[in-house]
Amino acid sequence: MLVIPVDAEPAMIVPRLERPDAEAAAGASILRITDWTDGSDPYTKSATLMAGTGRYAVSDSAWAMHLLGLQDRLPNSSYVSMTTALPMLRAIKDNDGIERLAAAGAAADQAYEEIVTVRFAGRSETDVGSDLADLLRQFGHAQVDFTVVGSGPNGANPHHEIGPRIIEDGDMVVLDFGGLKHGYGSDTTRTVHVGEPTSEEREVHDVVRQAQQAGFEAVRPGVECQEIDRVSRAVITEAGYGDYFIHRVGHGIGLTTHEPPYMVEGETQILHPGMCFSIEPGIYLGQIRRTDRGHCDGRSRRRTATQSDFARDENRPLVSRRGPRSDWPRNEIASESSGAILFWPG
């Protein structure tokens, strides 16, 4: 557990057997490191690093058992989630973060370019998902968070879990995949078609593409996040498919694949240079989807594609002072007081 107090040096407590690795880690020299041993009470030991009446922001991935243990030892302490206390702490990326995000996105694009060369028809979603995960690792991802392969009717479920369904000729297949490379996330959606798509499938995909492009072009410093959702959603609504766009238009990407800010109605947070987020409108009739990854540095965004009777596109724009940045890798459619911050490994 890492504790960052307001008025004291940061401290970390780890199991004794992991202390050598902690002391060898980058940044360890600025930490006061202590440990606990098996058989002892880690929460009593951890409580010595904290103020008994402090208010703490806790990492979103903190385990409930750890937080409950601290609350038991420090009954007068209080806690709030990190996202609630410091929602924009990680939203604005520095140059290093932007470069890492671009590299993660480029690696995901490479994985996509390879996966579309393998056979889909006659194979299960699970098999294709395994190939896709292997490709993400091949191109540098240390962690694969998800590989959605939604074929045929399964493509209309935005978060379909891969399963045994055999992909057939004529299917549209939604590929939604991402993970971490050098500590930063990728999140890409593409829709591909096994065989030649119908005119209706092409029409719906074109609407999604236009909605994504409209959202991309709306990215500017000072614009509210909800405006990106509104602009993209208006295109789909005007085309008569508004009832079939069933989720927000995007989310932040950084140290995790989903984080603030969120491109959704009601979110009045304004965009700042250095923000990076997805723009991923979709129409879910029975299949079709596209995704792009965007970054608010004023010059960049991210784009993805989809196919079938559902459609979704996901791009990642970067907000720059001049608007959305477009020089990222892209793919087109293919057929308060005595408080502190606490972090636990998730």
Total domain units = 2
What does the largest sheet look like?
A: 6 strands, mixed
CATH homology-level superfamily of the largest domain: Creatinase/methionine aminopeptidase superfamily
Instruction: Supply the helix-strand structural class.
Output: alpha+beta
Uncertain regions spanning at least 5 consecutive residues: 287-309, 326-346
- Mean pLDDT reading: 85
Q: What fold name goes in the CATH topology slot of the largest domain?
A: Creatine Amidinohydrolase
How much β-strand is present in the residues? 25-35%
Cα-to-Cα separation, first versus last residue:
11 Å
Order of helices and strands: EEHEHEHEHHHEEEHHEEEEEEEEEEE
Give me the number of helical elements: 8
Strand order of the largest sheet: 3-2-1-19-4-5
Quick one: overall form? globular
Broad CATH class of the largest domain? Alpha Beta
Based on the coordinates given, report the CATH architecture of the largest domain: Alpha-Beta Complex
